[in-house]
Amino acid sequence: MASIQFGILMVPYQTIDAAGPTDILFCCSRALISQYENASLPGFSGLSEKAIPIEFHYINETLDPVTLSSNFKALPSTTCDDCPPLDYLLIGGPDMLTFQLSPRFEKFIQEHVKAGKGIFTTCTGGFAIASSGVLDGKRATTNHGALEMAMQAVPNVKWVKEQWVQEGNIWTAGGACAGMDMMAHWVVENYGMEIAKIAFGLLDFQPRDVQRKLIDLS
């Protein structure tokens, strides 16, 4: 099975917006689980074949560092021009009082969606990409504290106050931790609870469902 090519667009997001969801994916990855299986750790026998084959790409317009929240400096691994074809693209939430989507990022997002590939947004990420038009006419959410501003700024989107929203290949989540809940749901849906529980255990994380109720992991 070919590896999932998973991109993170390096807007100046809140660090956990991308770190949370991608750590869930990494903890379920074939790369990590095969190490545990090869080390004969208890409970991992036979799981590497069920795990997620995935590669991560951190994408910016240049290879210059990007300053995230709490002055965290992150290095892109590729550029919009050199990035390999992606299966999924994650956009975290920048400060929407100051952020404006660049023309290059806008084009990158539009081309990705036009190709029928998946989008995930967390926190204000939904608001951030809305100006590209990819959410027009669709139900979507963003950080609930920014919903009113999003409704006024981008009225073509059907903004809703929900934990997360799926519209075809586009998933939008509310706050940062709602993004982790959303990604947890995606993993369970696509790879099963057995694999998902590895991430939940390693991260000491109990996700919530779309109704904000804790999922029973017993």
Automatic annotation (TrEMBL):
Taxonomically, the superkingdom here is Eukaryota
Record InterPro entries: Class_I_gatase-like, DJ-1/PfpI, INH-QAR
Ranges where the DJ-1/PfpI domain occurs: 54-185
Q: Name one Pfam family in it.
A: DJ-1_PfpI
**CDD domains, per this entry?**
GATase1_PfpI_2
What protein name is recorded for this chain? DJ-1/PfpI domain-containing protein
Organism name: Cudoniella acicularis
Lineage runs: Eukaryota, Fungi, Dikarya, Ascomycota, Pezizomycotina
